[in-house]
Each structure stands twice: as C-alpha cells, then as structure tokens.
From TrEMBL, chains A, B, C, D:
Mg(2+) binds at E103. This is ATP-dependent 6-phosphofructokinase. It comes from the Bacteria. It catalyses: beta-D-fructose 6-phosphate + ATP = beta-D-fructose 1,6-bisphosphate + ADP + H(+). It comes from Streptomyces nojiriensis. ATP binds at G10, R72, V73, G102, E103, G104, T105. SUPFAM superfamilies: Phosphofructokinase (SSF53784). Belongs to the phosphofructokinase type A (PFKA) family. Mixed-substrate PFK group III subfamily. Substrate binds at T125, I126, D127, R162, M169, G170, R171, E222, R266, H272, V273, Q274, R275.
Length: 341, 341, 341, 341
C-alpha cells in the first residue's frame, strides 16, 4: 500500500508523533510506502512531498511542531483543487491519504472524501473542541503549560496582593481554561460558552478579598465575551497607575477588575507557548494510537472516517459527523469548577 | 451533613486534590462539616482525626503525598474493628465516610459498607489497574515521571552505545510500562501480563543493533517475569566487567542482555520518584472531579459505591464490582506498542 | 541574638529560601530568636511582624513568593520613618535587621545603616543587575522559565514559518534576554544597553530567511529601545492582517518586523511567569548561602554590608558600594551571543 | 583555520552545545572549517570523522548526549598512538584540536599537547570536580535532576513516615550531593570527602524523629564510604521485612538506618538519569561560552590550555595545572549544609 500523510492548520504538540506512528505501523508491520506532503493541503495540490522512511521519523516522537510543515488553506481554494488532487493521487499511486488537522482540515477532508478520494482523518486541536472524540492530542500539553504558568503566578500574586488575569487559548470553547483553571485552583474561570457579567465576576473575586485572602487568579479563554450590555469591549483602558492597557480580553478584564476592585490587577497572555514544544506523555500516547489506527483503517478500506478516542478505545467515526458540531463545555462540567473560593 | 475522609495505602499524586475537593464541595456548597481521619483506616479505628475546613486544605492542590497520612492495615485487623468503627461513626455523628485508596482499601471499604456503614469510595492507584474506571489519578503523573526519565536516558544510551533497562512500577500490571514505553519510543516493553522469553527479547534488541542503531531502551515493569524455563530469576549475576549486579527484574535483565548481546547494558530503577510530588494537570482535574462527585453521591445517599471515570463522565459503580477483577493490559493495547524499531 | 528579617520590592524566586536559611542558621546553630516583618519596610515602620521559628519556615524552601509579603515603599516615606524604625528596633530588642531586596531596598537599607541601625543586606533581583555580586538568586529561575518558553516557541515558529518576538523581563539591563537567548539559540537578542537600529535588526532576521531558514526567534528585553530616529515607539500599529497590535516593545517589534520582512511575526510577552514559582536548584543554593552568611555577618558585627557571590565564595560588600552602579551587559558578553545564524 | 573537535568520556548535558558553539564561532565568524572526530580519541587515532557545518549542528543546542559519540580510551593506548594522531593531524591539515572531556580526557590532551599537538581543551564533568574552573557544564543539570527527584520523594516520605536514602552521582567528590541536598533541604548529606560514622548518622536522623518529624531525607554520593570500623560495607543486608537488599552505598545505608532506627527506610538510586537529556539554561550558556572561547584561544595560538570559568569570566588555564588536583568539597561549604533539621 502507498500512503500519503499531511498536517494542516495550527501547530499542535503530537503532530510528529502521529506522523512517526503512521510510518512505523505502515512501513514496519505492513511493508507499505509512506510519503509526506509538505505544508498541508498545499503539498497535495502541488504534489510537493518527500518520502518518509524510518530514518525520516527518527527522533521526532517528542519534538513539537511538524516535520512536514503546515499551512492554512481556503476551503474555496481546495474545492477548486479537487481534480488536481485526484490527479496527483493517481499519479503517485496513493491508496490512502491521512490528513491530520482541526475542524477546517476535517471539513476539507470530508469534501475530498465525498469526491471519492481515500481519506482517513486524524483529528487535531489543542482546543479539544471536536465533538466526535473524547479528547484530542495537544490538549493535555496546552493544559499542562497553562497550569504550570498558573502555579507560578499564584505565588507572585500572593506576595503582591494582586489579581492575576491569565488569558489562555480557546477561541470558541473554554476547555483549556476549564481544565487549567481546575488544575491550578483558579478562583474564577471565564469561558466563551458563558458570556460573563462583569459585575458578577467582580463580586466573586471581591468576596475572596473580603474573606481575608490576599490574591485571586482569574483564568479567561481568549474567546470569552461579556454578556451584552455588561461591559464595553471596544475600547482599551487605563489602569490605576495611568498606564494604557489594550485590546484582548485578558488585558481588558485586568483593567476592569482593577478599577472595580481597587486592587492591582495584572494580565498575563500565555499565547503561543501553549501550542509549541514537547508533548506530554499523554499526548504522545494518544497521537501514536491515532496514527496506528489510521493505518489500520486504511488497510481495512475504511475511508471517509476519522480516528477518535472513546473511553480507552480508539474507534472510527464518519468524517461528516465529526465536523457537524463543536464540543462545548457543558453546564455540569462548568459547575464542577465553581466551588473554589 | 458530616463527612469523614481518609487516605489509605501507598502514596499517589492527587490524594490532596481529592481531599481539598471534598472539603470545598461539602463545606462551601453544601454547608457540611468535614473531618479527616489520620493515617488511613487506623485513624477511623482509633478515632484519630482533625477538622478539615477551607484553611486546612489551602495550598494543597498541587502538593504530593497526603496531608492526612496513610498506612496499610491488615484486612483481618479491620474486620475485627468493624464494631469499633461503627461506634466512632455514631459518636462523631458521621453521615458519610469517603475512603480514598487502592484495591486493598476498596475491599476494606466494601466490608464496612456491607456492615452498614455509609461509604463512598474513591479509587486510587498509580498502577491504573482498577477495572471499573477508565483511569485512576496518579497514573498520569507516574507515566510522566517515567517518560521524562526515558527521554533523558535515550541521549545517554545513544552516546555510549548502550542498552538501558529501565524498571518502572507495576507489580501486577504493565500500564505504566506500556504508556511510558510508548510515549518515549522504547524498543521493547516487558509487562507482567506477558511472561517474557529472554531469547526472544534478546533477538528483538539485537535486531536493532544489527540494523545499525547504536542503542536500545527496554522498559520493564517491576512485576514482569520470565516465561518458565526461559531464565533463572533466583540468582543475581555478574556483568561483563565482573561487577556484581543483584536481584530485581531490571538488574537481572541488564545482566542477561549484556551477556547475550555483548553490549554494555545498564539498569535504572526509577522507584519511589514515580509516586511522589506534584501531580500533573490531568491528575489534579481527575482527582478534583472524583472528590466533587463523591460528595454528591453522599448527598444523594448513594452508598456502597465508587467514583469512576467513563469516557469523560464521572459515574458511580458498586464497590463490590470494583474490586472483583484487576484491569490488565489487553492484547490489542500491547500490540499497538510493538511496532517500534 | 535577636534578628529581624524582611522582604521588599518585586517578587523573586528564592526569597523564602533566604528566610528559611536565616531562621535555620540563627535558631538552630546560634540559639537566636528571629522575627519577620510583614510586607517589607512597612512592617518595620509599623512594627507589624511575626515570630519565625523552625515550624514557621517548614516546607517553604521550594515555594515561590515570600511568606512575609512584600511591598514597595517610597524612599521619602522611609526617610521620614527612620526614627520610628529605630524606636521599634529598640523596643523589640533587635540586634540585627536583614532586609532582602533589590536596588531600592538596598538604598533604603544603606540609609538606615548610616542612621546607625544594625543592617546586613541580602541582594535580590531577577534582573541580575546588582554590580557587587556575580549573580543574584531568582535570575537563574527567570532565565530557565524564559528558555523553556523559547524552546517551545521554536518548534511552533518553524512549523508556521514565522518570526517570534519574545519579550522577557529586564527594564534597565538585558541579562535575562542575553542568557535565555543564548540558551535557546535565539537569532537576535535585543537589550537595553544597545539601542537597536530597526533596519539592521530587519536585515539580520531577513538574512536567515534568505539563507533558506523557515523561522526566526527574536528575544527582546522589556526595556529595549530603538536608536533615536530608527523607529517611532509612541504609536501602536496594525499587522499584515489588519489587526491592531499595541504598545510594549515586543508587540511593536513584531508589527515592525512583519511589515518590513513580509513574514508573519507574532509577539509573546512572558511577563510575571518569570518571577513566580519554584526556584531552580541553583537559586535555592545561592539563596540558602546568602541567608547563612547574613546571619554570620550579624554575629561578627559586620553591619552596613551586603552578601555577595564572587566566584564560588560568599563575601561581604559595603552597602554603599553595592548600589552605586548598575551591572549592565558588557560588550564582550554581548558579542559572544552574536554568532548565531 | 581547520579545527577538529571531539567528545570523550562519560556523557554530560551540554556537550552538543559546545560542539555547536565551536562550529558557529569558527565557521560563521572566522570562516574556518570544522571536523568532528567520532567516538572520542578513537576517532582521532583512526582518522574517523565527519565534516561539521552549520546544518550538522542545527537543532542540537538543547539535545543531551553528543552527536559525535564518545568512548573511554586507555591512556596507554593513547600514548602508543601519539605518532598516529600526529600523522592524521598533518594529513587533515588541522590547525587546532578541541577535545571536550573530563579528567582522563584532559590528561590525554595534556600528553598530546606536550608532544606538540595544537590542543585547546574544554573541561567536562557532571561531578564538578575539576579544580581549575569554578563550575563545569552538566553539573547544574545533574543537580537539577537530583533536586527534582528529592522534591518528589519528600512528599512520599512524609506520607509514609519513612527515611529515604537517595544515592546521587559523585565517585570522588560530593558536589552533586551537596548542592542537591541543600536545594531540596535534605536532612543529612553524605559525601566521599568525609567518611561517615554510621552511629553519628543514625543519631542525626533519629533526632528528627525524636523531635516529632515524620520523615527524613538522606542524600549520599555514590562514592561515600564509612569511617574505617564504623560499618561493614562488604556484605549486603536484609531489611526489616526480610527482603534482601544489595550492594551500593545507597542500598547499604537504607538497610543500616532501618535496622538502627526501627523506621522504614527506602533507597532510591538515581543513576544515569542525572547525566542524560536536555541541559539547563545555565549549562547551555556555560557550554556555549566554553566553545566560543576555545575557538578564540585557537585563533590566538594559545595551545596547551583549557577554558575555565572564574567568577563571570571565561579564562584560559594551562592543561597541566587543570588535572593536577581534584576539586573537593571544602569544610566550610560542607558546614553550610549542616544546619538543616
């Protein structure tokens, strides 16, 4: 069998572990050939690829990033390229294509699958918002990085009697905020699923100080938004020392809480650190299993499917299903995190 | 409601996170009172306890060990103490007891439950071998510590052209060996579930060297055993430099592989480092959820049950079921890890 | 002997290690009594303190922050308080005061020393800019945190063909930028000691891309400034996707480099994470030694002095000298870091 | 200029950082050519080498081990090979050889230097026992790994009321034991420089338990020895549960302390984990500076010398001096660590 693999979309710890696992399973156990398309779908559309043998994937298991490069591609652009992709697949004699990517990638994968190409998808997002799988690789690493930062910030917040507002990734869902906030014992967690009321948030944080505590940690997902009418997001602000603080929900919340509480508040924007670097053991195992099972699915001829974790099993799920809804933080999970004072 | 909590058996990262979560949920949300029995069942039998309020659990979320202390108790001793325990529970006005522990603890918990005491168990084992839950807290931390060590050992093995034999925890099951071995890309993984054939193992490792590789990593669970007749475990051995190397499967395997391969082999016994210290974010979240749901179960009057993770949900499982079988590494999971060369 | 200790100024990993060491050495070896003033100089001026015995410093060696709290005090305010401080020192029967702090704290300490109070200072700054000591504790931890972030960012920058501009601490000096940049192999390091020319910086980064590399890492100290006329710092900017990016040298540089290079550039502002949390082993040893030697100096009656590291020795240096000049990055050290392509 | 570089002796975090730095400085700044001899002196004796250009050292800064491989060579063997080495140096047109290694390597380097070969040495030992330099790279990483393990073991020791005996590296000197023991707050530190009296050690640890503490941590260097007559080291022992525990000072001490104190004692042998894997930022900076200055010395024609750290400066020291004495832990440094109860 001849297999093409590609990585598309934003960076995510564990991508290399999937690539390595595909190559190991396919080449060693099945005697397959594997090629890797460069820079995501672009590589498929332009037949830009390199051979992936055992040496090519040596030492990459624990390395962040992707040895194949990645890029974002416009869906329209890909739609126009279906015939070109089909031609390359035929020319290269490919029996299976394994795209590893997030929601956009999987939608593109579904498009190509419906056009008849032999696709087995592997879901990837540090945001953990793909509905068809219990967990995606990369998420555990992102939560780990955020939790370590929160652990560090707690002691400095306490020494200086401050509110720390820590902005973590999560444009549409609050999974990273929820898990890192629970793991670090944050005193308030603000997620996109629940538009926040700034007065209520101020009250929650304020109660801590009233109870004699010297600091508070607020974790906020980058995509969190105030309840309409609760707070004006458009403008930036000036903190209690007259310094300008600018756009971004973390910065905005820090300014707002400082004004309302009369306590120093400092924003920390974790940013790209969450999506780079060595994956945790958890993510390496999950990524390795996804790669292994994607190859198996290809050999069973199960195309148009996606690898997914259900409990402790890896199962195959239709691509079409996988991208229909976003997995958001449900009310009961959010409630579990509300106890902390 | 008045709740007693205790930790019993071996140390496990996340114990304090459960204790804290029980106190937070019970005290803050339900207005309960919580006491902690000291040093496991012993504390219950001797009515040795202290009050656990919010201050008592301040700052313990990320701390290893258990603020309540732990001990191992003989089942017979506990059986004789049932009436004493019942008396203390009545005297203290306890409505629920939440023991946090491994297989032995849960069996004891079941005994007391059948004797009519109001028990909600929380499973705990770094070995991950409790059948009724997908995962136990502490396991992820143990795997993380082992993986970090394996990552380090790889470079030193490569520089010196050695075989490294790394012994990890797992007396009856090979979960830590399997996951850390997969995460670090070990070249052979030896688990208790599959008695090994020393000749076959030598062959697998030897093939790597034949293929031009300069080193190999073997991960072995402490409880792994040779296939009967394959290797004599009783005696120690002498390595190729004439140094005595002694009992313990890691040491034995290193001696044996060195003799058979004619390559330097070095044992590393990770030991207690795997069960101490700060829990990973994963374990803190799981432990926190277990504590939260144990309190909820108590308030619903669901006694004789155990918290368990199923997929992404926390469910309640009968104590009796929970301890009937050991969760061993199944064949298909083991096969997934066999691809690595 | 009766000793008072206090921590003043910004947070710094290792403060608790100094406090613990002072208590251990003084109480255990000399039979002294130790009290800790709360929230820095404020505690001394208001006679707000608590007793520090062995139990009070149990378990704090590896903990970030300061159990005594800290605050910044206006020099004028302290000057007015000299008599009050003297009164408290007399009332409390103190034979020595050990303030742990940065430049401002040490200047205040010198003032009180010249007024006749028995002061032994301990230098503290994550910025490493105190001239009289080879290294200050906290610096190694800050460099470690920054380096770990840079390691992570490298893989994500490479996967996405980006310039990452990472802003680290260092208002007046570039030590953290220099060391973390060298440790992580940054491609350009921008420090306050050398106002940068934006065109030259663009050229250096651009050459990397011309040479076929896919990414670049720029480390910039928060206090770095453009050469007059080289770049307008007042205004914010708009990146190549039309998003506003605002003040702060990291953000500014990212916007500027993106415009000039035509490559995506992303800023990461590490912020307070660098000064919180567990100190490295290096910082704990240095902090412990400083505390030990401060007590010894007090017992020898060597007041008006500061502990300092010279090579591998701890020596005592006059407070007056210690604060007269800032230790900046010298030309030859900067040159050592310029080789990286 | 044409430079040959080689790594010899035991593995040490930072070796790759030196190699990379030599190549960067030599190739980029001086336009030199650099070759790397494989597997230490063996590569020089057998003219086994590869070209080291910028690509060859890409991505190795943070990687443990050595890309050149290493081996130990018998001094006699090298002595016989001087002419062969001289021949290869002439044939390859080498202007300088930079061997990176420990005491044995530097003695060999001195031998070759005295035979007229153009040598600039770089000292390397995780043990930190080379007298001519304040610190060697690799030491900080080893101390960091040991400290992290000790941090983890503390909580598990406390939960189980145990003595933990942790054996760290240090065959002839106790630097790793001293620094990791101070950093982690060990309750006793046993080093080769001070043969221990088992009764005195038992007393020190016992006092902790008498004072109501629940656990103790003992750090012991692998080369530590009992005072003659104090304890019989030859035989192994049987612990209080009848399990055999065998040779190695860590195991022996655990058995002995358990018997004498009547408390559970557990040995942990950290082993090779201390010398593998990613170097700390500190070690990367030091290693990078050593490489840079070695190239500079070569260009200045300063042969027969060794790079060394003195305070914050890198200086050149005669090879002959460097290996004449071992840097042992002096009495006053040891005393600083004796305060802990």
């Amino acid at each position: 069998m001849r297999i093409g693999v590609l990585t598309s979309g934003g960076d995510c710890p564990g991508l290399n572990a999937v690539i390595r696992s595909v190559v190991h399973r396919a080449v060693v156990d099945h005697g397959d050939e594997v090629i890797g398309f460069l820079d995501g779908w672009k590589g498929l559309l332009e037949a830009d690829y390199r051979k992936l043998d055992l040496d090519a994937v040596g030492g990459i298991l624990a390395r962040g990033g992707t040895i194949l490069g990645s890029s974002r591609v416009q869906p329209a652009h890909l739609r126009d390229g279906v015939e070109r992709a089909r031609g390359h697949v035929a020319d290269l004699g490919l029996d299976a294509i394994i795209p590893i990517g997030g929601e956009g990638t999987l939608k593109a994968a579904n498009l190509l699958s419906q056009a008849g190409l032999p696709i087995v998808g592997v879901p990837k997002t540090i945001d953990n918002d793909i509905a068809s799988t219990d967990v995606t690789f990369g998420f555990d690493t992102a939560v780990g990085v955020a939790t370590e930062a929160l652990d560090r910030l707690k002691t400095t917040a306490e020494s200086h009697q401050r509110v720390m507002v820590v902005e973590v990734m999560g444009r549409h869902t609050g999974w990273i905020a929820l898990h890192s906030g629970m793991a670090a014992g944050a005193h308030a967690i603000v997620v996109p699923e629940r538009p926040f009321d700034i007065e209520q948030l101020t009250e929650i944080v304020g109660e801590r100080f009233s109870a004699g505590k010297r600091f508070a940690i607020v974790v906020v997902a980058e995509g969190a938004k105030p309840r309409p009418g609760s707070m004006d997001l458009e403008e930036g602000g000036v903190d209690m020392y007259g310094h300008e603080r600018f756009a971004g929900i973390g910065n905005r919340l820090a300014v707002e809480l400082e004004h309302r509480l009369g306590k120093e508040a400092r924003p920390v924007i974790l940013g790209h650190v969450q999506r780079g670097g060595t994956p945790t053991a958890y993510d390496r195992v999950l990524a390795t299993r996804f790669g292994w099972h994607a190859v198996e699915a290809a050999h069973r001829g199960e195309f148009g499917m996606l690898t997914a974790l259900r409990g402790t099993d890896i199962v195959m799920v239709p691509l079409a299903e996988a991208t229909s809804t976003l997995k958001t933080v449900p009310a009961d999970r959010y409630d579990e995190a509300q106890t902390v004072l």
